[in-house]
């Protein structure tokens, strides 16, 4: 079934990587992943992390639902010592879907339940949770908010894809108002309040989400935005710097982290024969962060590195590196074998995408050898995820390795890795994109189907997948 991933041995994978000029390394010795690491004075028991993976399964009011709690019990049981909790909106109108979590005082009890069940299942399985770090990702979805988008800037490539009136299908244009400077000033306070809620609930850290072209990510590239949040580097980074400062002042004992795009690139679209092709853009690029302004394919980490330096001075303790846009450039954020039904086929060998993650992450880690950097984009490697992870940790290319899609199919991967057993072949993520397809399915009463892994977490998600398929409106 696989088109690109056909590797029975590490040597075969390495030979392909070499032929494509990629810097993929594999280690048979996985013990590098078992070594503890200190993050802001806290011991994290191993180098394995679960990335933020939202299940789109909250209650309509933004509290965790039954499936949300189940996911965190499974993550807790799994043995990774860093659990990077999923996106939770700081205001209800900043949610990316109708079942995304919300982090505010009203949802505090639900979040406390989630954290408690996660930690308890970790203790039951592993005896001790003192070296387990659990965080929560605070977000505002900006242009991807429901029911209506909130723009930080005009992006000539994304505005025509941003529906501002569902009835008429009208999309954003130069006349669509942006969030004002006052709106953003007020939003800073909502972030501080959400951080306070997360802290009181007992999360070990919060993540100020600046990735995947959601609001704080868009601000980083808002060259054309007027006023104090746009234009210069200082202005584009004002929101994050100020909000980190405020949170550190108000909550000096709360660890602050950030998941950040280090490379946006540009949006892609479906071309002939369904292959992804880059959107037509004009140069120099004025709304892409971490990207060579004259060549969208080339990451330029100068500004991301400058910002990380500033954030570190402000006390940010850990950086989770990501890139791309799940709606506009899925092959960049998560290299895949098969796209979801409405998505384009990967325009490059997925191993090139994996290598792009590894190289950019290495550049950041080498610039900040003492700052724990969490790497992304490993799931496509299937049975070799942890051989690559171990080699990258061994070589100082990354401190901690995060697992995204593969954590839905095999949440207990760390148990296998730490006990020296291969992964369970029947549950290794094959990057078929069922999880993304469910995430994009909105045609039920709640306006959102829950997501998980239909092929490998069958009992729960196969019926949900079947229902979504049977009830799907015809695609036009
Ligand atoms: C179903 C699904 C939910 C996700 N939820 C989040 C999220 O809440 N926050 C976030 O930063 N990234 C989210 N991501 C992106 C992943 O964390 C990860 O960056 C991506 O899948 C690439 O890593 P992988 O190759 O290990 O899957 C999600 C991805 C998927 C497929």
Give a written overview of the molecule.
Pfam families: Oxidored_FMN. This is NADH:flavin oxidoreductase. Residues 35-266 form the NADH:flavin oxidoreductase/NADH oxidase N-terminal domain. Keywords: Flavoprotein, Oxidoreductase. InterPro entries: Aldolase_TIM, NADH_flavin_oxidoreductase, OxRdtase_FMN_N. By secondary structure, the chain is of the alpha/beta class. The chain has one domain: Alpha-Beta Barrel (TIM Barrel). It is 34% helix and 13% strand. The protein has 15 helices and 15 strands. The chain has helices spanning 10-19, 66-78, 108-126, 181-201, 215-220, 233-236, 238-250, 302-313, 330-333, 350-367, 385-394, 405-409, 413-418, 434-439, 458-471, and strands at residues 37-39, 42-44, 48-50, 82-89, 101-102, 133-139, 163-165, 170-171, 205-208, 255-263, 268-270, 276-278, 318-323, 373-375, 400-403. It has an 8-stranded parallel beta barrel, surrounded by 4 helices. Strands 1-2 form a two-stranded antiparallel ribbon. The protein has a two-stranded antiparallel ribbon with strand order 7-8. Strand 11 and strand 12 (276-278) form a beta hairpin. Helix 4 (181-201) runs parallel beside helix 7. The longest helix has 21 residues, at 181-201. The radius of gyration is 21 Å and the shape is globular. The mean pLDDT is 97. Residues 51-54, 86-87, 137, 209, 211, 259, 322, 333-334, 376-380, 403-406, 435-436, 439, 451 line the site of flavin mononucleotide (FMN).
């Amino acid at each position: 079934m696989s088109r690109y991933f056909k590797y029975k041995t590490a040597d075969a994978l390495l030979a392909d990587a070499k032929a494509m000029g990629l810097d993929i390394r594999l280690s048979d010795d996985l013990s590098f992943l078992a070594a503890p690491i200190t993050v802001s004075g806290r011991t994290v028991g191993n180098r394995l992390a679960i990335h933020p993976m939202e299940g789109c399964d909250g209650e309509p009011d933004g509290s965790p639902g039954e499936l949300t709690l189940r996911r965190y019990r499974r993550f807790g049981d799994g043995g990774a010592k860093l659990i990077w909790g999923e996106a939770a909106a700081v205001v209800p109108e900043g949610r990316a879907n109708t079942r995304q979590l919300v982090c505010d005082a009203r949802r505090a009890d639900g979040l406390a339940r989630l954290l408690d069940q996660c930690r308890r299942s970790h203790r039951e399985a592993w005896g001790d949770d003192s070296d387990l770090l659990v965080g929560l990702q605070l977000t505002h979805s900006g242009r991807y908010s429901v029911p209506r988008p909130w723009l930080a800037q005009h992006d000539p490539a994304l505005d025509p894809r941003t529906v501002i009136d569902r009835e008429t299908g009208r999309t954003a244009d130069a006349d669509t108002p942006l969030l004002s400077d006052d709106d953003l000033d007020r939003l800073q306070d909502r972030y501080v309040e959400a951080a306070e809620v997360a802290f009181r609930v007992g999360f070990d850290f919060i993540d100020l989400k600046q990735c995947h072209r959601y609001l704080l990510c868009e601000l980083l590239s808002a060259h054309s935005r007027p006023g104090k949040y746009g234009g210069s580097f200082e202005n584009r980074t004002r929101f994050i710097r100020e909000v980190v400062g405020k949170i550190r002042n108000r909550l000096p004992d709360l660890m602050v982290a950030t998941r950040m795009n280090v490379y946006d690139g540009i949006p892609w679209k479906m071309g002939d024969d369904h292959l992804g092709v880059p959107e037509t853009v004009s140069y120099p690029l004025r709304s892409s962060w971490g990207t060579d302004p004259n060549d969208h394919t080339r990451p330029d980490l100068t500004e991301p590195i400058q910002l990380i330096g500033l954030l570190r001075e402000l006390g940010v303790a850990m950086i989770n590196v990501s890139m791309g846009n799940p709606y506009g450039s899925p092959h960049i954020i998560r290299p895949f074998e098969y796209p979801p039904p409405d998505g384009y086929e990967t325009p490059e060998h997925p191993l090139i995408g994996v290598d792009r993650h590894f190289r950019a992450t290495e550049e950041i880690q080498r610039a900040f050898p003492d700052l724990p950097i969490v790497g992304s984009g490993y799931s496509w490697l299937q049975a070799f995820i942890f051989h690559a992870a171990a080699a990258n940790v061994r070589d100082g290319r990354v401190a901690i390795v995060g697992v995204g899609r593969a954590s839905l199919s095999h949440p207990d991967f760390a148990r296998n890795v730490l006990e020296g057993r291969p992964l369970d072949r029947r549950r290794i993520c094959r990057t078929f994109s069922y999880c993304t397809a469910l995430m994009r399915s909105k045609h039920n009463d709640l306006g959102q189907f829950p997501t998980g892994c239909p092929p490998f977490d069958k009992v729960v998600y196969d019926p949900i997948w079947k229902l979504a398929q049977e009830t799907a409106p015809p695609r036009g």
